[in-house]
Specification:
Strand order of the largest sheet of chain A: 2-3-1-4
Strand content of chain A: 15-25%
Number of strands of chain A: 12
Largest interface: A-B, 89 and 89 residues
Radius of gyration of chain A: 22 Å
Oligomer: homodimer
Distance between the termini of chain A: 49 Å
Chain lengths: 361, 361
């Protein structure tokens, strides 16, 4: 057990002459942070220090190094896993983290999604088609206006309604007031239509604030929440997965650290830590340049991983009605398509939203 | 009050023809996340939506856009300030955040360092020279070995001893056992020498684990702790500054997101949120390419900021004894120089450490 390892694959810019030393330095940086000669303890040298398992050439002065890191350096903390995978190396411009291979013990320790695709479908009451999602915005509206927008979305058939990540606990629509207003509005729609949209408010703030928001959400009957793990900390995502009982929607805010490949961070790692759905920029929207990785993120979110539930991919970011067929074809039915501005900006929000939902059914 | 603004300065890659539209899109992305035409609410349009104040050419197809963001979108949460400054834009490859200008109200709301340079000097009992710091490592050693290393450092005159950021709550040296062993060892040295080194254990884990570690540290008489804000969340740093009573040492793990300039993140923002000292790669060490920004980080940590205490700069990352005079000259006396591997890897750790301390006195 003590010698169990995870594998991190790093892309390195180096020359043929320097790459072996660079990979060795990386393996030490991401573990003991000392030169190997300074490791006087035999167990640390043999079982704890990172080691280079392979180096493969990938282009001119471009290599991939497989580094084996001891699982015991992680404990069962998500933040510490990030530390060990890329903490210090994030400060070095010649290296990127491009893949992670996790042993079963780590997968089990974190547990992955508690709902996953099957659980989200059950929550939303949707089978056999992608889920339709939208966002409450702009920030600055009062709670009543946001609730009215939520009601419009729900009437038009939207399955999941999330807060814009710009909605926090600001004066214009404080969390408690907003969550109460939106859930009441959705309850009223459900009484008329017989179908209840899922509302995922955004949790923000320090640990105390976030815990209070979670309790407010629970008291209001909320069953799904959104979190930006790279803002609130990946350990918070993991703690919510372990203890909240809520379905978890991960937002990519601050995740655009280009030196961790998006499929690794938004796909594999967010899934490992418990995200039931993961939002990412879909190709062609206003995050066009970042969007090319969408299919690889979705693949990582669904790949075999020691029996962990898959995470539902949520292509978003400037998704327009016209592009729904293309995006639907790309991601298949086990996805949640998120359109915000395209619906809210329409002259007839309800009609545009109905058209969006119909395009998915 | 409601219309008060902070200023974010973004560097944009764009053509002369496209830059105005790109800057406008950025101002909307970092605020309301809707096209301006979709903003039906007059107050949101006037007071909440971001606005472009100026665009300056900085090179071929390179511009700086000054964007004014409404303070009301931040509330008083550090994570939400990151969201508003760069959350979504971190996903866009053509933009970097290069400066932030904060109004007094935000500076006051967060409060900055509670100890700052003056408080750290008092804590360490050091006047008139830079502080000497080192790190306990490698991870994988047991608590007794780490405590013995701490004693060696303290006997040799080190002022501040921090955990390596790879030390978390792992089996080899669990937090509770490690903190007890190290503080006992430092107490014993203090009884002999009359001088007590400051020990800064590293806090990690989810909110519950971190709170338990904080209590353990407090019970052991610890007065300074280390946190990696980009792993644990900047709101955690802010919460510790507001409530822990501890001096706070910020570690840059995962902060190498190249699209936020290091002086902004490690200097201005970590200081705003309450870091009393901020670690960064010093030029010439093993983070050579990242190290050129050190002087600008130190400048941001000490710049006038509505009366906030300055944050002590901590150049680190492969600092060797030979380079102490140069680094000392670069950062002046109000700095803490951190040498780890150079001391631990020496044949005679005590002698090398004494030489390091002497080079600073």
């Amino acid at each position: 057990m003590s010698a169990e390892r995870l594998v991190a694959v790093y892309r390195l810019r180096a020359t043929r002459e320097s790459v072996a030393a660079r990979a060795e330095a990386l393996a030490l940086e991401q573990s003991v942070e000392l030169p190997r000669a300074a490791l006087r303890d035999e167990r640390v040298r043999a079982e704890v220090a990172g080691r280079v398992a392979a180096i493969d050439e990938r282009g001119e002065d471009l290599y991939e190094a497989r580094v084996e890191l001891a699982c015991e350096t992680v404990g069962d903390d998500a933040g510490q896993l990030l530390n060990m995978l890329f903490g210090n190396s994030s400060l070095q411009p010649d290296v990127a983290l491009v893949d992670v291979q996790l042993p079963r013990s780590l997968a089990t320790a974190f547990g992955g999604p508690r709902f996953g695709v099957v659980g989200l479908r059950a929550l939303a009451g949707v089978q056999g088609r992608p889920l339709a999602a939208s966002a409450l915005k702009p920030q600055g509206l009062d709670a009543a206006s946001l609730a009215a927008l939520a009601a419009t979305f729900a009437e038009a058939g939207i399955d999941v309604i999330k807060d814009d990540h710009g909605l926090a606990d600001q004066r214009a629509a404080p969390f408690a007031v907003r969550v109460a207003a939106v859930t009441r509005a959705l309850d009223a729609v459900a009484q008329r239509t017989g179908r209840r949209a899922v509302y995922a408010p955004s949790l923000t703030g320090d640990a105390g604030a976030l815990a209070r928001q979670l309790e407010l959400a629970r008291a209001a009957g909320v069953s799904m929440v959104m979190l930006a793990p790279m803002v609130s900390g990946v350990s918070m995502l993991s703690a919510l997965a372990r203890g909240s009982g809520m379905a978890l929607l991960a937002h990519p805010s601050m995740a655009g650290c280009t030196a961790i490949a998006a499929p690794v961070l938004l796909g594999t790692l967010f899934r490992l830590f418990g995200a039931d759905a993961t939002i990412f920029p879909a190709a062609g929207g206003r995050f066009a340049a970042a969007g090319g990785e969408g299919p690889r993120i979705a693949a990582a979110a669904a790949a075999a991983l020691h029996g962990l539930e898959p995470t539902m991919p949520v292509p978003a970011g400037g998704l327009s009605l016209e592009r729904v067929p293309e995006v639907r074809a790309r991601y298949g039915i086990d996805a949640m398509l998120l359109a915000g501005g395209d619906l809210i900006g329409a002259a007839d929000v309800a009609a545009r939203t109905r058209a969006f939902v119909e395009a998915l059914t």
